[in-house]
Automatic annotation (TrEMBL):
It catalyses: L-aspartate 4-semialdehyde + pyruvate = (2S,4S)-4-hydroxy-2,3,4,5-tetrahydrodipicolinate + H2O + H(+). The keyword Repressor does not apply. Pfam families: DHDPS (PF00701). Belongs to the DapA family. Keywords: Amino-acid biosynthesis, Cytoplasm, Diaminopimelate biosynthesis, Lyase, Lysine biosynthesis, Schiff base. It is found in: Cytoplasm. This is 4-hydroxy-tetrahydrodipicolinate synthase. It comes from Mucilaginibacter litoreus. Pathway: Amino-acid biosynthesis; L-lysine biosynthesis via DAP pathway; (S)-tetrahydrodipicolinate from L-aspartate: step 3/4. Homotetramer; dimer of dimers. Catalyzes the condensation of (S)-aspartate-beta-semialdehyde [(S)-ASA] and pyruvate to 4-hydroxy-tetrahydrodipicolinate (HTPA). Its EC number is 4.3.3.7. NCBIfam families: dapA.
Length: 292
C-alpha cells in the first residue's frame, strides 16, 4: 500500500457565494495539490464539509473528482456516519471507479462501546472490496477507537489496511505501534504532531494544512520518511504558527481563508460553520507571506 505513504490531503469543498459547489474552483484546488507534490487526495472527508452535502451532491462531487484527477494520484473517498446500516448501504452503492480506498470515521454522537465500534467496521469491511482506512478522531466523535480494537480489526479483515489516527494520545499510539500487524498503516490525522508520528513509525499524514501548503508540508513529510529529521525539523518549526491558525477558529474555516488569500478558491462555508474573524484572517495572510 505504498500509494498511501507520504502526504494525503483531506480536500476542502469549494463553494460559490450562494453556497453551491464551485466545480471550477475544485479543479483549481486539485491541480494546486497535485502540482504541489502530494501523494494522494481524500474527497469528502470531514474537512470537505460532507455533513452539509446532500447524497446527490456527494455523488456528483465524487464522480467529478475521480474524472478530473484521472488517476494522476491515488484517491480516497470519505464515507462514514453514525448509522451503520445507512453507511453500509452508501458504501455498497458507491461507484468505486477511480478510487483506491475508503476512509471512514468512527461513529459520532452515539458513543458506542468498543464492541459496537468493532461491529460497525466489520459491517463496512464486508460491504466493499476497496481497502478501508479507519479514522479515530475523538474530538469530533465523542469516543475513541482503542488500540486493542484497531489491532483486532487489522488482524481479522484483510481490506482494513490502516488508520488515520487523530486521538493525540501517545499512550494509545505506543500500544498501537507495538501491537499492530507489520503491514498495517498508521497515518497521522493531526497536522501538528505528524512529524512525531512518522518518527514513531507512521507512514505519513492526511492533512488539512496541506490544502494551502502542499509543497511545504509534503516535502517535510518526505524528509521524515527518509530519516532526515534535521531538515524536517526546520520545515516543521516554520509552519507551527500557520498550522495553529488553521484550527484556532475551526476547520476548515482557517484553511479556506488561506486558500482565498492564495487565490485557489473562495472561503464560503455552509452553516453551521462560519468564516474566521478578520483578526485571524490577517494573521493567516501574514504567515503566508512569511512562509513564502
Amino acid at each position: 500500500m505504498n500509494r498511501f505513504y507520504g502526504t494525503g490531503v483531506a480536500m476542502v469543498t469549494p463553494f460559490q457565494a450562494d453556497g453551491q459547489v464551485d466545480y471550477p474552483a475544485l479543479e483549481k484546488l486539485i491541480d494546486h495539490l497535485i502540482d504541489g507534490g502530494v501523494e494522494y487526495l481524500v474527497s469528502l472527508g470531514t474537512t470537505g464539509e460532507s455533513a452539509t452535502l446532500s447524497k446527490e451532491e456527494k455523488k456528483k462531487v465524487w464522480e467529478f473528482t475521480a474524472k478530473y484527477v484521472n488517476k494522476r494520484v491515488a484517491l480516497v473517498a470519505g464515507i462514514g456516519g453514525n448509522n451503520t446500516h445507512e453507511t453500509v448501504n452508501e458504501i455498497a452503492a458507491f461507484d468505486v471507479e477511480g478510487y483506491d480506498a475508503i476512509l471512514s470515521a468512527s461513529p459520532h454522537y452515539n458513543k458506542p462501546t468498543q464492541e459496537g465500534i468493532y461491529q460497525h467496521y466489520k459491517a463496512i469491511a464486508q460491504a466493499t472490496k476497496l481497502p478501508v482506512i479507519l479514522y479515530n478522531v475523538p474530538s469530533r466523535t465523542g469516543s475513541s477507537i482503542a488500540a486493542e480494537t484497531t489491532v483486532r480489526l487489522a488482524k481479522e479483515f484483510k481490506n482494513i489496511i490502516g488508520i488515520k489516527e487523530a486521538s493525540g494520545s501517545f499512550d494509545l499510539l505506543n500500544q498501537l505501534f507495538r501491537d499492530k500487524p507489520e503491514d498495517f498503516l498508521v497515518i497521522s490525522g493531526d497536522d501538528p504532531i505528524s512529524l512525531q508520528m512518522v518518527a514513531m513509525g507512521g507512514v505519513g499524514v492526511i492533512s488539512v494544512v496541506g490544502n494551502a501548503l502542499p509543497r511545504q508540508f509534503s516535502d517535510m513529510i518526505r524528509k521524515c520518511l527518509e530519516g532526515d529529521f534535521k531538515k524536517a525539523h526546520a520545515a516543521h518549526y516554520s509552519m507551527i504558527e500557520f498550522t495553529r491558525l488553521m484550527f484556532t477558529e475551526g476547520s476548515p474555516a482557517g484553511v479556506k481563508s488561506a486558500l482565498k488569500t492564495l487565490g485557489v478558491c473562495g472561503d464560503t462555508l455552509r452553516l453551521p460553520l462560519v468564516n474566521v474573524s478578520s483578526a485571524i484572517e490577517e494573521k493567516i495572510k501574514e504567515q503566508i507571506q512569511l512562509i513564502g
